[in-house]
């Protein structure tokens, strides 16, 4: 029995590690964003977008929030609107996907986006995001 337990430990540790990996890319991007390393955060989000289809709704909502906030910090209003709108859409359907702090962050980012938006361009991605008609993230 001790030998069986000893042989299962590495397997269980490996399993636990892979189960926790799902949201690591979101956490890493959020960490970089929070520390003001926007270019690095944008790179993490760009490289990991393909993981969205296999992610939980909460991970997708957080990804959209942090990717959108990162892009907004970098001045890419059009793409920021797309991702913030995506996060807002998910959070509107199920508010518990984001923490209270993240919901406040989303609201502030959307308010900032609205101030930067050009409402005279109804075809822009920002105008679409503000109207609640955000495109879904591209799938790879």
Polypeptide structure, described:
The chain has 7 helices and no strands. It has helices spanning 2-20, 24-34, 38-48, 57-73, 77-93, 100-116, 125-130. Helix 2 packs parallel to helix 4, helix 4 (57-73) packs antiparallel against helix 5 (77-93) and helix 4 crosses helix 6.
Q: Count of DSSP helices?
A: 7
Instruction: Indicate the percent of residues in helices.
Output: over 70%
Number of strands: 0
Taking the alpha carbons of the first and last residues, their distance comes to: 46 Å
Q: What proportion strand?
A: under 5%
Largest sheet: none
SSE pattern? HHHHHHH
Shape: globular
| Overall pLDDT | 80
CATH architecture heading:
Alpha Horseshoe
Which structural class best describes the helix and strand composition? mainly alpha
- The Cα radius of gyration reads 18 Å
Supply the number of structural domains: 1
Contiguous runs where pLDDT drops below 50 for at least 5 residues: 4-21, 124-128, 131-135
The CATH class = Mainly Alpha
- Enter the CATH topology name: Serine Threonine Protein Phosphatase 5, Tetratricopeptide repeat
